Amino acid sequence: MVWEGLHATFSTDRRPPYAQRLSTHPGIHTASRAAADARGRAGHQSAAASNLSGLSLQEAQQILNVSKLSPEEIQKNYEHLFKVNDKSVGGSFYLQSKVVRAWERLQEELRIQAQENREKEQMPKT
C-alpha cells in the first residue's frame, strides 16, 4: 500500500488517481466500442465527409444559411453568395472559398442521404 502511494507521487501520469483507475478499467473500453458501433455507418460517412471538406454539417448550413437540406435552397443560396463574394465586385476570395467548401460539404451530405434511402428501399421487408 505504501509503495502504491509512493509510485503515485512519482508517476509521470498527472491525472488524479481515480482517473488513472478509470482509464484502465476494462468496462470503459467495451462501453466506448459499443457506443462507437451504435453510431452506425451513416455517422461514419458523415464524419468522413467533414474530414474531407474541413467543415461540419452545421458549419456548412450556417455558411449557406440553410436550415434543412433542400437541394434547391442550397443551390440558390450558393449561387447568390458566390456572386456577392466575387473578387471582381469587391468581394472576398476567402469568403468565396468558404462558400464553395460549404456547398461541397452539403452536396456530400445529400449524396450520403440519397445512398441511405436507396439502401433502405432495397432492404427486404419482413
Automatic annotation (TrEMBL):
It is a peripheral membrane protein. Gene3D superfamilies: DnaJ domain. Signal peptide: none annotated. Keywords: Membrane, Mitochondrion, Mitochondrion inner membrane, Protein transport, Translocation, Transport. It comes from the Eukaryota. GO terms for cellular component: PAM complex, Tim23 associated import motor. It holds the Pfam family Pam16. Residues 14-52 are annotated as: Disordered. It is found in: Mitochondrion inner membrane. GO terms for biological process: protein import into mitochondrial matrix. Belongs to the TIM16/PAM16 family. Regulates ATP-dependent protein translocation into the mitochondrial matrix. Inhibits DNAJC19 stimulation of HSPA9/Mortalin ATPase activity. This is Mitochondria-associated granulocyte macrophage CSF-signaling molecule. The lineage of its organism: Eukaryota, Metazoa, Chordata, Craniata, Vertebrata. The gene is PAM16.
